[in-house]
Amino acid sequence: xxxxxxxxxxxxxxxxxxxxxxxxxxxxxxxxxxxxxxxxxxxxxxxxxxxxxxxxxxxxxxxxxxxxxxxxxxxxxxxxxxxxxxxxxxxxxxxxxxxxxxxxxxxxxxxxxxxxxxxxxxxxxxxxxxxxxxxxxxxxxxxxxxxxxxxxxxxxxxxxxxxxxxxxxxxxxxxxxxxxxxxxxxxxxxxxxxxxxxxxxxxxxxxxxxxxxxxxxxxxxxxxxxxxxxxxxxxxxxxxxxxxxxxxxxxxxxxxxxxxxxxxxxxxxxxxxxxxxxxxxxxxxxxxxxxxxxxxxxxxxxxxxxxxxxxxxxxxxxxxxxxxxxxxxxxxxxxxxxxxxxxxxxxxxxxxxxxxxxxxxxxx
Length: 364
Fold this sequence. Notes:
The protein has a nine-stranded antiparallel β-sheet with strand order 18-17-16-15-23-22-21-20-19, with no helix packed on it. It has a seven-stranded antiparallel β-sheet with strand order 6-7-8-9-10-11-12, with no helix packed on it. A five-stranded antiparallel β-sheet has the order 1-5-4-3-2, with no helix packed on it. It has one helix and 23 strands. The chain has one helix at residues 305-311, and strands at residues 16-17, 63-70, 79-90, 93-104, 107-115, 131-137, 140-148, 152-162, 165-177, 181-188, 193-202, 210-221, 240-241, 248-249, 268-272, 277-286, 289-298, 315-316, 320-322, 327-330, 333-340, 343-348, 359-363. It has two domains: 7-257, no CATH class; 263-363, Lipocalin (Beta Barrel). The chain is mostly beta strands.
């Protein structure tokens, strides 16, 4: 009998992968044409203990995209990382998930799952599938994506298990108009070091681009108070702010990365609608302070703010504190606030909705 192993289809996180007659086979990896620098200088972790072969029978509608093997938690026992196509379709094609399995004696158990760090199947634009590879290097999961049309982009993101969480420790973002210009943003979030370059290129002496002129170079430190979590991460969204200039990298418009100074920046109604239940959260001025209320509602569509006071009974939060870097402490657990391209979201990673592995509320 097949075991349903993936909580992505509504089952428990604690289910383990048991041996079956089907062995996963990764797709061939496509090498990237742009080499990016390695920024995490940590010795490779030796694997000393052998574990049983990893075999897994995927649920109906799921297919393997790629996999990697290596030690991720420094116990000298290899873990298994899978990138899979799910049975969900979105605006950008097939949604994907990243799964980490750990060996416990004779069985493999699901250690972690994440939605977000692997882009959907059609997110690469004219270049097609953006996913290139997943590998384990120096105890970190390394994901590579590639896409674009005339202008090409290459993203490399590195995640490590630390402080009881999977966190982003490195990002290399390359934007290139071949034979014209190239921008490289290399950010070691673990140390805070940022290296940015923008060069003019030419292909007059052959197909390989040659640097004609350095348009900009920056090297500075931006040590974040907290690192982005893997679950819910948006590839390509990483940025750094210059410590002495009012400028961000790789996008110089820092307004795309606003974080709140106080609750007045968050005023509004945030909602999430689904097939079985909807969520709503309101932040409104109340005298000299603010009132934060949340609703869990049976129904398919998120309600409008005008409906909330008339039809539904809210729960009032006793605690809702937002720090300057956008981190939230609340009755509902820890969260974060994000504002980009005019859209504001509040994400509670500890609350799982039936739609995704986190509660991501969007401001109306």
